[in-house]
Amino acid sequence: MTTMPDQITGGVDTHLDVHVAAALNAIGGLLGVESFPADGPGYRRLLTWLESFGTVVLVGVEGTGSYGAGLTRHLHDKGMRVVEVDRPNRQERRRAGKSDPLDAVEAARAALSGRAKSLAKTRNGSVEAIRVLRVARSSARKDRVRALNQLRSLISTAPEELRAELRGLSIFRLVNKAAGLRPNDRTDVVNATKLALRSLARRVRSIDAEMAEIDAVLAPLVAATAPDLITLSGVGTDTAGALIVAAGDNPERLRNEATFAHLCGVSPLDASSGKQLRHRLNRGGDRQANAALWRIVFTRMASDPRTQRYVERRCKEGLTKSEAMRCLKRYVAREVFYYLVPLEAA
């Protein structure tokens, strides 16, 4: 009689330098706990260690989008099914204490029991490329706004001859004018202010060049990844990029459009009690994707007659404009989902 290999469920507590793994058998028995370096050779050793107990059918990983991203990519490349474990069960932590081995065991138990059932993003395709470019562009945009605010603030307190020269200019002309200031070697207030203004203006120019370089790669990448999505009303490169990143490189892991709506934080949460039936606002989910849906709705409210008629009708029914926009965000999430996930996968 041939014996079937044990089905193994793994759990990993991830850290910057070390990952702690635990292995469970099919009935939840603990087979072992081991630590591995958080690098390529360590990932290979971790998977080999899990496979030494039997056939690995599932691995629960904490922090698949941070410290566990590299391990998650490696496991996906090896054909492993990986689920994302948000955090250890609080009741179990209070009962048993807190340690890395205990967290790894709890991650494995969460995967085995089905508490952790969200498949992890693969982070190994064009969507991951879009994500990292958006991270760099977002920080550049924030730095640009900060530099412009500092530039305007310095102008408002500058000596009168500088204020008169720079007051009332558009952003483009202001940056060009300030970048061309020529302070001399004297350290009086006028020349020190000229130096500060020139430094800030040139910083804005440098950031503009950075953003243009990123946009030159990002825009065609978004268009190639979801060519039909950017044809929708109100959807541009930035909003499309946020929604694509929310769905991930493997959007088929999203079971249906309701799952995507919940991921974006636009699905109302049931808050009924007794005879009172009500829902409350969902403040969770991917906030960048949520903001992208808001921008789409806002644009359509200004330019799309069908959306305008909907808002007018719902306001007559007693909803506020904000409440009507929340309804529209839910509808847009449904529409977008089918442009992100192939119909056969959905």
UniProtKB/TrEMBL annotation:
The record's annotation in InterPro entries points to: Transp_IS110-like_N (IPR002525), Transpos_IS110 (IPR047650), Transposase_20 (IPR003346)
Q: Which residues cross the membrane?
A: none
- The protein depicted here goes by the name Mobile element protein
Q: Which GO terms describe its biological process?
A: DNA transposition
Chain ranges of the Transposase IS116/IS110/IS902 C-terminal domain: 229-311
At the top level, the lineage of the source is Bacteria
Q: Which GO terms describe its molecular function?
A: DNA binding; transposase activity
Boundaries of every Transposase IS110-like N-terminal domain copy = 11-155
Pfam families reported in the protein's UniProt record: DEDD_Tnp_IS110, Transposase_20
